[in-house]
Specification:
- This protein is an alpha/beta fold and 315 residues long.
- Helix content is 47%, strand content 13%.
- It has helices at residues 8-11, 13-16, 22-34, 61-65, 81-85, 90-97, 118-130, 147-160, 176-187, 205-214, 236-243, 249-270, 276-283, 288-295, 302-314; strands spanning 3-6, 39-44, 74-80, 108-113, 134-139, 164-168, 194-197, 219-222.
- Helix 9 (176-187) links the parallel strand 6 and strand 7 (194-197).
- The chain starts with a strand and ends with a helix.
- The model has no long low-confidence stretch (mean pLDDT 93).
Length: 315
C-alpha cells in the first residue's frame, strides 16, 4: 500500500536551522492529517545538542508532547548514521537517544547513511526494531553507486531486517530512466517496501517520484512547497493532486491556506527552489549544499558561483 511521508520540518530545517513556530507546526500537522498524509517526519534527532539549532533538530519527547498531533497522523524522525558510528558504543548512544516505542510518540525512525556506513549501523537497526520502531534505511547518493555497489549494500541492509529501504537522490541527478534501473537493481535482493526521496535540481522530482510509484515503490517523500536543502524536493501539493484525485476541494483549500500563510513567506525569505545553478549541479553530480551556501552569501556574484561550480565539476 502506498505511503506518503511529508518531511518538510526535517528537510526544510536546513534553511532556518529547524526553528519553526508552534503555530506553524500545529497548523501543518492538522493539514497533513486532513489531506491524508500517512507519516510526518517531524524533524531530526541529532545526538549532540547545540543552541544554534531549533527544536525540530532534536524532536525530544517533551517537545513532541507540547504539539497538537492529530490521532490519524504517524510521526517519524531521521537520524544520521555518523552521529552513532563515531561514538564508542553505538547501542549506548541509541539507548540515550530513544525511549522504547511504547513510551514515545514516534513510530518510524529513518537512518540516513552512505554506502560505506551500512554495515556499522546494523546493530542500531536491530536494536530500534527490538524496542518497537519501524525502521527505514536511507541510502544517500545512490545514483552515484555502481550496480555492483547497489546490490552489495542491499544485501547488507537485508541482514538487518529493516522495514523499508529508501534511496535518496542526494545530488539531484536522477531521471526516470535511472530511477527504473535503480529500482530493478534493488529488487534483485530486496522484497520488502522500497522508498524514494527525490531532489528537484532539474525539475524532475515529481516525475521521478511518479516513475518510482509506477515501478513498485510504495514510500514516497515530499515537502510543502518543496521546502528542503538546496533546490528542495517533490512538492506535497503537487504529489497530492497527482495521487489523490478525489481530494475534497475544501481540503485542498486548507493546504493552499497553509502555504499562503506560513510557507510562502518562508520561501520569499530563504529562496529555495530550482534555478540554473542547481540544474548545473544536478547534471554534474555536485552536492546542492555547495550552491545553497554560495547563494546565501551576498558576497558571491553569479559569475563567482558558476566559476566555483566549474571547478567542482572538474575535480
Amino acid at each position: 500500500m502506498l505511503k506518503i511521508l511529508d518531511c518538510t520540518l526535517r528537510d526544510g530545517g536546513y534553511y532556518n536551522n529547524w526553528f519553526f513556530t508552534k503555530d506553524l507546526i500545529n497548523e501543518y500537522l492538522k493539514v497533513m492529517s486532513i489531506i491524508k498524509v500517512d507519516y510526518v517526519e517531524i524533524g531530526f534527532r541529532f545526538v549532540d545538542k547545540i543552541k544554534t539549532k531549533g527544536p525540530s533538530a532534536y524532536t525530544d519527547e517533551t517537545f513532541l508532547k507540547s504539539l497538537e498531533i492529530p490521532k490519524s497522523l504517524k510521526l517519524g524522525v531521521m537520524i544520521n548514521a555518523s552521529d552513532f558510528t563515531n561514538k564508542k558504543n553505538i547501542l549506548d548512544v541509541a539507548q540515550n537517544t530513544f525511549k522504547p516505542k511504547r513510551n514515545s510518540l514516534i513510530s518510524l525512525v529513518r537512518i540516513a547513511c552512505h554506502f560505506n556506513e551500512v554495515e556499522s549501523i546494523i546493530p542500531l537497526i536491530m536494536w530500534l526494531k527490538k524496542v518497537g520502531y519501524k525502521v527505514g534505511v536511507n541510502i544517500m547518493q545512490i545514483p552515484e553507486l555502481s550496480t555492483k555497489e547497489i546490490r552489495s549494500v542491499v544485501k547488507k541492509v537485508k541482514t538487518s531486517k529493516a522495514d523499508i529501504l529508501y534511496f535518496a537522490d542526494s545530488l539531484g541527478s536522477l531521471d526516470p530512466i535511472k530511477t527504473k534501473k535503480i529500482i530493478k537493481d534493488i529488487r534483485l535482493n530486496w522484497k520488502s517496501p522500497i522508498g524514494i526521496h527525490t531532489h528537484d535540481n532539474m525539475g524532475k522530482a515529481l516525475d521521478n517520484s511518479i516513475t518510482a510509484i509506477n515501478n513498485g515503490v510504495t514510500w514516497i517523500d515530499c515537502t510543502v512547497t518543496g521546502m528542503g536543502r538546496g533546490p528542495g524536493n517533490a512538492k506535497t501539493e503537487y504529489l497530492i493532486l497527482e495521487l489523490k484525485k478525489n481530494l475534497k476541494s475544501e481540503n485542498l483549500v486548507q493546504l493552499l491556506n497553509l502555504i499562503k500563510n506560513y510557507f510562502e513567506p518562508l520561501k520569499i525569505k530563504y529562496k529555495w527552489g530550482s534555478n540554473p545553478f542547481y540544474y548545473f549541479a544536478g547534471l554534474n553530480s555536485i552536492h546542492p549544499s555547495f550552491v545553497q551556501e554560495m547563494l546565501g552569501d551576498e558576497s558571491f556574484e553569479p559569475g563567482d558561483v558558476q566559476k566555483n561550480l566549474n571547478y567542482l565539476k572538474s575535480v
